[in-house]
Design brief:
Layout lengths: L31 E9 L9 E10 L2 E9 L8 H7 L3 H4 L5 H12 L3 E4 L2 H15 L8 E3 H8 L10 H7 L10 H19 L7 H7 L5 H6 L11 E6 L5 E7 L2 H7 L8 H9 L2 E6 L3 H15 L14 E5 L7 E4 L8 E6 L2 H14 L19 H4 L13 H17 L3 H16 L3 H28 L4 E6 L5 E7 L2 E8 L6 H9 L16 H11 L4 E6 L14 H11 L6 H5 L4 H5 L3
Amino acid sequence: MAQPAYVQGTLDTLLSADGSVDPAALSLADTTFVVLDLETTGGAADGAGITEIGAVKVRGGEELGVFATLVNPGERLPPFITVLTGITEAMLAPAPPIETVLPSLLEFLRGSVLVAHNAPYDVGFLKAACARHGYTWPNPRVLDTAAVARRALTRDEVPNRKLGTLAQFFHATVQPTHRALDDARATVDVLHGLIERLGSFRVHTVGDAIEFAKAVTPTQRRQRHLADGLPHVPGVYVFRAGDGRALYVGKSKDIATRVRSYFTASEKRARISEMLGAATRVEALECAHPLEAEVRELRLIAAHSPPYNRRSKYPERVVWLKLTAEAYPRLSVVRTLADDGAAYLGPFSSRKTAELAAAGVYDAVPLRQCSHKLSVRTPTPACALAELGRCPAPCEHKITPEAYEATAALPFRSALDGDPSQVVDALMDRIDTLSGKCRYEEAAVLRSRLIALLRATVRMQRLTAMTRLAEIVAARRDGIGGWEIVVVRHGRLAAAATSPPREHPRPTLEAVRLTAETVLPGRGPVPAASAEETERILAWLELADTRLVETSGDWVSPVRGAARFTSLLNRAEAAASGKDSSVRSSVTDRSDDARSLRL
């Protein structure tokens, strides 16, 4: 199996998949280190060029073993290397080649943390040699003493971070001589000196030391105590300010590991750095399983609008496209659903998107675009759209309310909860016409309107199919022998639990069902929760290994509903995003496959 490239590990990898403690979580005093140094011909790390290996195994300040050997590099030795190290070609001629040395060296490294000065250089040569000669690199934890020294020592203490300078600073018993074993022994003393220094930074484990060596900001280092004592369970975490305000809300399958990652070098977001400086504590809310954590995160963000969360903060700011209930209906963008007999499409995340979908409707059917309330008795003057043939002029009574309903309003109503093909086909025909005349920019505008309209209808029909059900009970294996259980009512997560391993899940299911939240029905496709919450639940229910236990009714979608245009929508979105730049091939293809989408 191919091994991953050398990367200094981060704190979010300190737990194994089974939850066991990684060696990097051990204290520095209890860790076995192999301190290594290489001498090379000075070339690139291409699998050859190593001339000498020196390694010392230590734990708790005690030397456990030594590995030292010259290596025949299989190439000429540059004269300047001989001057620098004192190693000659005559010394290397009888030495074993690297492929002979590697098995013993890899065995010496097994189960240890590898330490080197400027570690990427040494590790790069060893990995290249393993790859060239067919050996598996064990991918040990790697600690770079040069990187640690850059963070732990100031310029006032040492002018640079060279091995010789550090060895002199820490009064090493062996001074580096550009010979592998001497340099390795010098690095051992430097390592021990750095470990003593790290205690003042509250760095006590290998994982902490590896992370300390990275470019962690002073704020991250100062505030990392906020992650202490958090549980290794699924749930939601809340960073709070001194006055109790929620600054940031997040979720994770492992709260402790995720929160600790905010104090590592991998976290580079400026707003998060600012948030960490203002935070005084972190609250953890344990959840039954990851789906409950996702839902509770959404609800907490919506409730508190934390200043450092960017997404899902204002679910109430959705808008709807309303077809008014009057003799000559028109489209209107509104913020709330009303029990007024009107037809609604949505929710849309922004007014701009709703207006884009409305423009698609206007391109497909002859709905009036004026905002006047028209009388069936008294005519009013027509606008320019009537003169251009873009409106049937109901204002002048040139069309009856019945004919207007059939030709203009009914296709839109059908698209909401039934077959949107009349609207889709009309838009596709116009796109085809424009593309045939090489008017691709105009065709792309129509494509964006088609995307907005199709996405909204597909989404609403999916949501409505689920939220009309009074209750759905479902379960899914949790990976350790138990079951993740959810009770969903009208699209809202009403209860969640996890049954214990090796126990029948039915008692847990019945108990959680009895204590589930009471959810009342309402208007629209998302009557009891935000659209984002219901969609998260839908995604979980649609996983291949999720089992539906009970439903209060039939969970169905229209036979000729919007979902059958999903393939067309995906192709249009791919074209719009630049993955497929051809409007004609992605949206207007009239091949048998494209035609089948409309049948």
